[in-house]
């Protein structure tokens, strides 16, 4: 075999959104706004939950604070590199950094999927077993469930990463996305990847699809168990924000991972949705529909003004 064919790829070139530098500069400002908004919104939620005694003692808001932390981590895996690449025509990423990015993308992403499932269980207990809610959803159980979500994400990502790094990469090195992910990266392997693709699709696709089905079944059960129209209306109002988050996060993930690794022209835009937009929207979805969070934020604002005086 030719030496050039056996030499391992040392860096990958990420795909950009445009070859026009003016457009890329405009996109840099737009995505910088998205990233700053993501940080401001999610940090505000975490600080609000931590500083308010009622929110801090509530299992629902404890889980919400953890979701905000995961959203921060998730957007930080890809967005800083994306912002840097808007100002760099080459858009190169070393092989090792690519694998690290891939690992943390699936680590945090899977942990968020599991946490959203835990939050659905929390809403089920709160609505269907309100008298036992504080007993069942104790702080100890919440911590265990959050830790289990992180551990599940770690195991999932470790499997994905090991399967990827075992593949030989000897060229080409053009990743058809703005970050390193399993589907576009393994397409570049100079080996038969059919079995690996099936394993990875069954892994990522199964997690996203099964978690989404469990979530939908959970909310359906809640609505079925509540007899009165008024009760259903309140339950739907309570769960509406969670349903919006679930749809925004799981829809694109299922589209990307629960199918064979064929390329569609919309894949890059779908990736933007769940990597950049959804972590920014989550704080807005929860705060705009939640009177308790908005009230706690106003109290926090009033206290901060008093401290300044």
Automatic annotation (TrEMBL):
The chain crosses the membrane at residues 27-49, 61-79, 99-121, 141-159, 205-224, 236-257, 269-288. The keyword ATP-binding does not apply. Keywords: Cell membrane, G-protein coupled receptor, Membrane, Olfaction, Receptor, Sensory transduction, Transducer, Transmembrane, Transmembrane helix. It is found in: Cell membrane; Membrane. Residues 41-286 form the G-protein coupled receptors family 1 profile domain. InterPro entries: GPCR_Rhodpsn, GPCR_Rhodpsn_7TM, Olfact_rcpt, Olfactory_Receptors. GO terms for cellular component: plasma membrane. Signal peptide: none annotated. PROSITE patterns: G_PROTEIN_RECEP_F1_1, G_PROTEIN_RECEP_F1_2. It is a multi-pass membrane protein. Pfam families: 7tm_4 (PF13853). Its main location: membrane. Belongs to the G-protein coupled receptor 1 family. This is Olfactory receptor.
């Amino acid at each position: 075999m030719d030496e050039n064919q056996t030499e391992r790829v040392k860096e990958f070139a990420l795909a950009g959104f445009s070859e026009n530098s003016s457009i890329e500069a405009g996109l840099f400002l737009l995505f910088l706004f998205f990233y700053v908004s993501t940080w401001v919104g999610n940090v505000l939620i975490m600080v609000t939950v931590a500083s308010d005694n009622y929110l801090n003692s509530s299992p629902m808001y404890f889980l919400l604070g953890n979701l905000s932390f995961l959203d921060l981590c998730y957007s930080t895996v890809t967005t800083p590199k994306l912002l840097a690449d808007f100002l760099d025509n080459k858009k190169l990423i070393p092989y090792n950094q690519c694998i690290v990015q891939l690992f943390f993308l699936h680590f945090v992403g899977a942990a968020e999927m599991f946490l959203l499932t835990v939050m659905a269980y929390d809403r089920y207990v709160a609505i269907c077993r309100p008298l036992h809610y504080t007993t069942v959803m104790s702080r100890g159980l919440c911590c265990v469930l959050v830790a289990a979500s992180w551990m599940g994400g770690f195991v999932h990502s470790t499997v994905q990463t090991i399967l990827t790094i075992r593949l030989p990469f000897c060229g080409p090195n053009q990743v058809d996305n703005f970050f390193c992910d399993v589907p576009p990266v393994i397409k570049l392997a100079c080996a038969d990847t059919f079995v690996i693709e099936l394993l990875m699709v069954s892994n990522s696709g199964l997690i996203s699809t099964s978690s989404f089905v469990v979530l939908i079944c959970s909310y359906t059960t809640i609505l079925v168990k509540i007899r009165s129209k008024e009760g259903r209306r309140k339950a739907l109002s309570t769960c509406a924000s969670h349903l919006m988050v679930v749809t925004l996060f799981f829809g694109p993930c299922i589209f990307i991972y629960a199918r064979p690794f064929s390329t569609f022209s919309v894949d890059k835009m779908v990736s933007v949705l769940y990597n950049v937009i959804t972590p920014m929207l989550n704080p807005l979805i929860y705060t705009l529909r939640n009177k308790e969070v908005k009230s706690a934020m106003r109290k926090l604002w009033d206290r901060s003004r008093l401290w300044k005086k």
